[in-house]
């Protein structure tokens, strides 16, 4: 009885699994830092919660989409991460409001579309940098934004997703993404202007 075909099949499966795990490891190394910054801002600096959300998203990605191409992982990962963040926010809102199960909890009070907003090009975060503005100050300014504005800015400016993909990740309309992103840019420029004269303020 020839066992070679079975052995070969088993070896192929093992090789595919090893390749997928290596791809995931490389992917995690690339996106973990940015994803953590996003989640720490969204959870108001709770590093442990942010780490848990990111790790859970990686586990779900590997469990459900290990066979997808690496390029497809980027929007899939951030969609999973956004869903886990929204679940966490709902639990926190219910914990803060003991009888909240009797009513629908709105997490997106700022989710109002302004359809006349032109789709803005994704900014390079470096535009906010000069000698007077540090990365820490930018991160603090981002953390002060409403969560949906944080997400729109981070996904568009930091991750480079277009409006359509960002809308799919955030589970909202493209008009909402445009609104959140526009408001985030304006708020960041206003909050950082006093430190950076190139943003319209004074460094004095």
TrEMBL record:
GO MF, one term, reads: DNA-directed RNA polymerase activity
User: Sorted alphabetically, which keywords does the UniProt record give?
Assistant: Nucleotidyltransferase, Sigma factor, Transcription, Transcription regulation, Transferase
Q: What is its EC number?
A: 2.7.7.6
Please tell me whether the keyword NADP is annotated for this protein.
no
Asked whether the keyword Iron-sulfur is assigned, the reply is no
Lineage top rank: taxon = Bacteria
The RNA polymerase sigma factor 70 region 4 type domain sits at 136-188
InterPro entries registered for this protein in UniProt: RNA_pol_sigma-70-like, RNA_pol_sigma-70_dom, RNA_pol_sigma70_r4_t2, RNA_pol_sigma_r2, RNA_pol_sigma_r3/r4-like, WH-like_DNA-bd_sf
SUPFAM superfamilies, per this entry? Sigma2 domain of RNA polymerase sigma factors (SSF88946), Sigma3 and sigma4 domains of RNA polymerase sigma factors (SSF88659)
Alphabetized Pfam families for the sequence: Sigma70_r4_2 (PF08281)
Similarity section: Belongs to the sigma-70 factor family. ECF subfamily.
Protein name stated in the entry: RNA polymerase sigma factor
Tell me the lineage of the source organism: Bacteria, Pseudomonadati, Pseudomonadota, Gammaproteobacteria, Moraxellales
């Amino acid at each position: 009885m020839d066992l070679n075909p079975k052995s070969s099949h088993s070896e192929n499966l093992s090789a595919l699994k090893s390749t997928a795990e290596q791809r995931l490891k490389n992917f995690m190394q690339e996106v973990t830092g940015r994803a953590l910054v996003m989640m720490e801002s969204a959870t108001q600096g709770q590093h442990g919660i942010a780490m848990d959300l990111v790790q859970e998203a990686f586990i779900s990605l590997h469990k459900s989409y290990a066979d997808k191409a690496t390029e497809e992982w980027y929007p899939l990962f951030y969609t999973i991460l956004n869903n886990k963040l929204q679940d966490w926010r709902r639990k926190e809102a219910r914990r803060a409001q003991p009888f909240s199960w009797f009513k629908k909890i709105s997490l997106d009070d700022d989710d109002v579309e302004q359809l006349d907003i032109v789709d803005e090009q994704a900014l390079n975060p470096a535009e906010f940098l000069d000698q007077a503005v540090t990365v820490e100050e930018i991160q603090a300014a981002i953390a002060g934004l409403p969560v949906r504005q944080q997400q729109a800015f981070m996904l568009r400016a930091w991750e480079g997703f277009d409006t359509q993909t960002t809308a799919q990740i955030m589970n909202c309309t493209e008009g909402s993404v445009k609104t959140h992103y526009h408001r985030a840019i304006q708020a960041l420029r206003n909050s950082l202007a006093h430190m950076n004269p190139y943003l319209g303020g004074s460094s004095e």
